[in-house]
Amino acid sequence: MIAVRNLTHRYGDATAVDDVSLTVEDGSFVLLAGANGSGKTTLVRHFNGLLSPDEGTVEVNGRPVAEDLVAARTAVGMVFQDPRDGFVASTVRADVAFGPENLGLDRAEIRRRVESALEAVRMADRGDARIEELSGGERERVAIAGALAMEPDHLVLDEPFTGLDWPARTAVLDRLQHLRDSGTGVVVVTHDLRDVSALADRTVVMSDGRVELDATDPSPDRLRELGVRPPPETESESETARESRTTSESETATDDAPGRRANERR
Ligand SMILES: Nc1ncnc2c1ncn2[C@@H]1O[C@H](COP(=O)(O)OP(=O)(O)OP(=O)(O)O)[C@@H](O)[C@H]1O
């Protein structure tokens, strides 16, 4: 479990994360959303000690992150958008193998993990490709494979789907669902709730550094209020509901006060 308690993070005088408490249980899938600058990336960077709190604590599997950074980074895998500088080897397969090799695993286990991770991002046939020759989306997929190959207890993906085509996106989501079902805690930071929200056990929305919403089934209206576009199904349901509301209001309006009703709808 990742347990964040009363976490505050400041950049100079600006408070980016403001007294946030949040837990990510093993085997749960948490969607972390919120407008630009609301503090999502800053928050998740604390999950494996990439940042240290100004106030509050973060524990992973019951142990304070600051006490053992290596343990925290082994337990919490992290993938960020645009991983341009994050590669350590020249070919895809060597890069994905780097982390498992550092865990001291035997060759057969490293091979199993690497092939399985490449399969998950639909790059199984590109293992020998040179990183420098890959497109942006392919690089993102290699970065995701690198984190998958570590088989961490928790996996945090910050805007992981931006450059991914639909087949890759679907394949990665399938793997995330499978991981969640087998006990991994998954956190996906995204502005785009399409497809991901169907998998999420909870949606957490940040605004101005605070957690403003933590719900299993957030209402589309509340999401909109917090600057998050609802997933399409709920959005269209809501549109339908609004349309039918508008129609019945307009029927009533014809009966009693047409001008006033028309203004209200605007
Ligand atoms: N390295 C930094 N130095 C100073 N301020 C920063 C730094 N990183 C982030 N901030 C500020 O902290 C606030 C939160 O930023 P953060 O990147 O955590 O938000 P976010 O919700 O992930 O945004 P986005 O959706 O745009 O990625 C913003 O006001 C941002 O300008």
From TrEMBL:
Biased composition (Basic and acidic residues): 210-227, 239-248, 257-266
Family to which the UniProt record says this protein belongs: Belongs to the ABC transporter superfamily.
Role: Probably part of an ABC transporter complex. Responsible for energy coupling to the transport system.
CDD domains reported for this sequence: ABC_cobalt_CbiO_domain1
Membrane topology note: Peripheral membrane protein
Taxonomic source organism: Halopelagius longus
GO molecular function terms noted in the UniProt entry: ATP binding; ATP hydrolysis activity; ATPase-coupled transmembrane transporter activity
Gene3D superfamilies registered for this protein in UniProt: P-loop containing nucleotide triphosphate hydrolases (3.40.50.300)
Any Pfam family the entry gives: ABC_tran
SUPFAM superfamilies the record matches: P-loop containing nucleoside triphosphate hydrolases
CC per GO annotation: ATP-binding cassette (ABC) transporter complex
PROSITE patterns: ABC_TRANSPORTER_2
Protein name per UniProt: ABC transporter ATP-binding protein
